[in-house]
Transcriptional regulator (Intestinirhabdus alba), 310 residues
Amino acid sequence: MNKRYYSINNWLVDIPSGSILHLTTGERKRLGEYQLKLLETLIQGAGKIFTREELTQLVWEHRVIGNNSLPNAIHALRAALEDDGKKQKIIKTIPRKGYLLEPDYCSFIEKEESEVRDPEEETLPPEPVALFDEFPGDGGARESEAEPQPVEIPAVAPPAVKKSLHWTTLLLLVLATLVGGIAAGWYMQQNHDERLAAREIQPNVYSNIHLYSLEATGVSTLEANNVYDKLKDTFYTINQQIKMQSVRMNVYFHITHSSLNYTFSLTGQCDKKQLAMTIYHWRIVPARLNNLIIRETRRKLNEMATCKEN
């Protein structure tokens, strides 16, 4: 199935792989996270003059950055897209106003995913799940990745028990194993019996997004409201984008202790995408939580195939 890609000055923008691909030579260039995000923002508003403040907020999302971060990222994009920094045919600096991406150099093209896929990606996990974890000792947070599919571990025969091992010790080991198995079975049964009900929160607030909190009977709804309060601005931003692309989104989340189980589905006219994430220590750094949600949503949105014309 064909997918729709942005093209700028004969460079195809492959957002999922974080790179741009030359349509003639096949050369591939890697872009940094914020360079790619800046390029995506300019593409979506091609022909519009973005102020420095707008770009800083849209790309770095309330992070504290240096005065040269934006100009340096603009310079890197110009170099990658083979744009002359003096003539500025593609990315233009508008004096005392901001920056503009010239729409004459932008277009959409459809390509088979196999034609665009980066060979290096073949060795990567198919669907990384972004997590929040704590740095040991500093109380901070960082993002890490884990495979959603269990890793298959080859069976290894247990080492032979030394003959000198006392039979009493072996008996204790067997009893401990049995008790542990019974306790694990009881725990799994208790969790299996817990029924979660989907409760829609903030209905009719967003035109193209429906939010559902998965809750057990009798559980307080304060945590669900806490999640919404942290993400409501991000939901507004996502809603604006998917509305323009005629995509609808359902979000389901469930809170267990320090983790947030967050699943969303995107439904377009010709394709569907879904992603499940487990986000640990999600309360610690709200800005990183918002960055993660909007980044992963945009990634899946860009993976959606466009309809073939008859």
